[in-house]
């Protein structure tokens, strides 16, 4: 048992963001119409948190020989994986803050709750990334989820937004129950909630409290429950049904956030528990079992996501099914025990998805009224810049070279192929080919159809403009020059202590 | 599920006096530790039998006169049966949430107060941070007009 090691420096990014969230809440309570000021407050907090995360990254790198840094009796674990994902969350929160200004101003929604909930959700996600204990994973998940449920229903008088929030809440709670039951069973088998103790217990085969041989069936059932719970959160195939309705109903800027941030957070907790704790070096049999299960899940997820997306007529539903398919691609990285390619994939996925949703939020207009593809007929030349940006994001999601999506898929498929998972990589590549059809269909509607009604030219505020530009820059940067970032992560792999 | 019960339940220390510690209780406990829970079973039986007995006795003694109001379910004066889609004041929920914030969260102060002597200055600072966050929430609710009834 570690000592109660209270080290506030290790959770400084979390503390900074929490304080910023409270401050923006108070600032909004003092000032009416504080939409723009709050964007600056949020951005300042996020950038400060980013700087302190960068300093922690350097600290972790210099302490690499001693293993990951732990604090608060092993509740908080800092290693390169947690910090890499924290960076992703900060980027997602920053882009979402910029993107949401348009929605909040146009529809005259109160901005302070939105901005502080966004930050609190980010803190929850960061806690999930740096969790060293199953209790902490659960706590972070709840903080992130509850804030996101509220955000999904932010358009209070809109029935679809209400439906989205309610569905997200009920199914989210349902999946959390699975997760919690799985944690309880794993605790029953191994005698601890601390992930390091659990991995030691699995290695030795003894319960950590009683020192008796552990009941393996309990561990397997617990691991299965955890798999179901995380499967809900990242929307893998049999557990994906909530995704399209929730993504469609929520305000588009919220959809952009919850399709990327909470998903990446569930991925990092999933990695932490399965790839790191239930690793092959601790229990070969357990590892083989979950790898086989995940293989089936990943294939199902990719196929269902891509096939069903073909028949969708609403752009937000298309993107929802595409995000299901992307969860399937990212799961392939789990099979190869490779967190780096998963982290890289989640970064590219987040950036291009937020970009695509930003374009959708502008094209759909006030109140997200025009999300049907039919409504977009002939709009391409009227809003040429937006359409070309959407084309880039869509091609990136399909995996076109020179874009970030290609590099993400390439690294994932390469590591899996090297580890001998040939069939699943072939299935994934075929699926990418299918996906090109539905990614290009909006382009056909935009450019090759006649306008059926006189649509006004979509207007956007400068923050949305900046969001789209940043997402474009990120997509191209990750696609053309991924080497620098990837070598940074590769160094992290060498010093990673499993 | 026997697995969870495998831990040894420690028996109470033997009495210090030299008198022979032969007690029915101790013998029963040796036979099966579940006997310790016998009082709970007794309490359950008493708790169930009390209303049953009381209602039955009073049904023999009282005069029985039924009318419309008496036969309806007791609902504080509201009509017990009606349309589910009724309009009601959302204020009630705001009050309920304020109650959650200020009453339930104050529950966290009690565990702190019990081990205050061990936590010392560290615990004091932490609890002030906690109360500070609560005050921010209170002030926010106030500014937002949650405390204005009309």
Helix share of residues of chain B?
A: 55-70%
Give the DSSP E fraction of chain A (strand runs of 2 or more residues): under 5%
Spans of chain A of at least 5 consecutive residues whose pLDDT stays below 50 are: none
Q: Tell me the Rg of chain B in angstroms.
A: 28 Å
Task: List the total number of helices of chain B.
Answer: 6
Order of helices and strands of chain B: HHHHHH
Could you tell me the mean pLDDT of chain B?
76
Radius of gyration of chain A: 22 Å
Oligomer: heterodimer
Largest sheet of chain A: 2 strands, antiparallel
- C-alpha end-to-end distance of chain A: 19 Å
CATH-derived topology of the largest domain in chain B: Methane Monooxygenase Hydroxylase, Chain G, domain 1
Specify the CATH class of the largest domain in chain B: Mainly Alpha
Describe this structure in words.
The complex is a heterodimer of chains A (498) and B (150). By secondary structure, chain A is mostly helical. In chain A, 74% of the residues lie in helices and 1% in strands. Chain A has one domain (8-494). Chain A has helices at residues 12-30, 35-62, 80-106, 111-129, 134-152, 159-190, 195-204, 216-234, 242-249, 252-277, 284-310, 315-335, 339-364, 384-398, 404-418, 422-448, 462-480, 483-494, and strands at residues 69-71, 76-78. Chain A has a two-stranded antiparallel ribbon with strand order 1-2. In chain A, strand 1 (69-71) and strand 2 form a beta hairpin. In chain A, helix 3 packs parallel to helix 13, helix 5 runs antiparallel to helix 6 (159-190) and helix 7 runs parallel beside helix 10 (252-277). The longest helix of chain A is centred in the middle third of the chain and has 32 residues, at 159-190. The model of chain A has no long low-confidence stretch (mean pLDDT 91). Chain B folds into 2 domains: 21-65, no CATH class; 88-150, NADH:ubiquinone/plastoquinone oxidoreductase, chain 3 (Methane Monooxygenase Hydroxylase, Chain G, domain 1), CATH 1.20.58.1610. The longest helix of chain B has 28 residues, at 116-143. The radius of gyration of chain B is 28 Å and the shape is flat. Chain B starts with 23 loop residues before the first helix and ends in a 7-residue tail after the last helix. Chains A and B meet through helix 1 of A and helix 6 of B.
């Amino acid at each position: 048992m570690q000592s109660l090691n209270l080290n506030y420096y290790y959770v400084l990014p979390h503390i900074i963001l929490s304080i910023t969230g409270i401050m923006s809440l108070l600032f909004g309570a003092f000032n009416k119409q504080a939409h723009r000021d709050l964007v600056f407050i949020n951005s300042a907090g996020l950038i400060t948190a980013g700087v302190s995360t960068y300093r922690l990254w350097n600290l972790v790198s210099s302490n690499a020989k001693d293993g990951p840094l732990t604090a608060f009796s092993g509740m908080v674990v800092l290693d390169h994986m947690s910090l890499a994902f924290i960076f992703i969350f900060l980027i997602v929160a920053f882009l979402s803050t910029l993107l949401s200004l348009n929605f909040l101003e146009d529809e005259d929604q109160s901005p302070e709750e939105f901005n502080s909930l966004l930050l609190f959700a980010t803190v929850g996600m960061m806690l999930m990334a740096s969790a060293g204990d199953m209790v902490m994973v659960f706590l972070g998940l709840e903080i992130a989820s509850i804030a996101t449920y509220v955000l999904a229903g932010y358009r209070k008088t809109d029935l679809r937004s209400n439906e989205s929030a309610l569905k997200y809440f009920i199914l989210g709670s349902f999946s959390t129950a699975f997760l919690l039951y799985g944690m309880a069973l794993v605790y029953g088998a191994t005698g601890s909630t601390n992930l390091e103790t659990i991995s030691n217990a699995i290695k030795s085969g003894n319960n950590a409290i009683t020192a008796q041989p552990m009941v393996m069936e309990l561990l397997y059932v617990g691991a299965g429950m955890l798999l179901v719970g995380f499967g809900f959160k990242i929307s893998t195939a049999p557990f994906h049904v909530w995704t399209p309705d929730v993504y469609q109903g929520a305000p588009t800027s919220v959809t952009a956030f919850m399709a990327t941030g909470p998903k990446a957070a569930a991925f990092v907790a999933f990695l932490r528990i399965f790839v790191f704790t239930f690793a092959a070096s601790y229990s070969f049999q357990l590892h083989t079992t979950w790898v086989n299960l995940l293989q089936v899940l990943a294939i199902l997820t990719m196929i269902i996501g891509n096939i069903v997306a073909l028949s969708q007529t609403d752009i937000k539903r298309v993107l929802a099914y595409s995000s299901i398919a992307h969860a399937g691609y990212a799961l392939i990285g789990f099979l190869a025990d490779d967190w780096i390619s998963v982290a890289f994939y989640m970064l590219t996925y987040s950036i291009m998805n937020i970009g695509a949703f930003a374009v959708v939020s502008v094209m759909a207009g006030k109140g997200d009224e025009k999300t049907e593809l039919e409504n977009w007929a002939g709009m391409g030349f009227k809003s040429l810049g937006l359409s070309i940006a959407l084309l880039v994001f869509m091609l990136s999601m399909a995996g076109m070279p020179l874009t970030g999506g290609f590099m993400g898929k390439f690294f994932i498929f390469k590591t899996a192929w090297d580890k001998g998972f040939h069939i699943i990589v072939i299935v994934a590549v075929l699926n990418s080919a299918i996906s090109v059809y539905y990614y290009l269909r909006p382009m056909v509607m935009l450019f090759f159809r006649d306008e059926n009604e006189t649509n006004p030219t979509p207007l956007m505020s400068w923050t949305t403009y900046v969001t789209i530009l940043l997402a474009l820059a990120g997509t191209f940067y990750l696609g053309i020059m991924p080497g620098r970032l990837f070598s940074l992560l590769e160094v992290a792999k060498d010093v990673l202590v499993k | 599920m026997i697995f969870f019960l495998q831990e040894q339940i420690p028996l109470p220390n033997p009495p210090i006096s030299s008198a022979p510690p032969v007690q029915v209780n101790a013998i029963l406990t040796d036979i099966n530790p579940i006997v310790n829970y016998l009082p709970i079973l007794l309490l359950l039986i008493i708790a169930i039998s009390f209303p049953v007995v009381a209602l039955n006795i009073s049904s023999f003694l009282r005069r029985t006169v039924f009318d419309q109001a008496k036969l309806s379910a007791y609902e504080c004066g509201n009509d017990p049966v009606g349309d589910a889609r009724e309009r009601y004041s959302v204020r009630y929920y705001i009050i309920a949430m304020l109650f959650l914030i200020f009453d339930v969260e104050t529950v966290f102060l009690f565990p702190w107060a019990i081990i205050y002597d061990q936590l010392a200055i560290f615990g004091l600072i932490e609890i002030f941070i906690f109360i500070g966050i609560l005050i921010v929430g209170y002030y926010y609710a106030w500014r937002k007009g949650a405390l204005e009834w009309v």
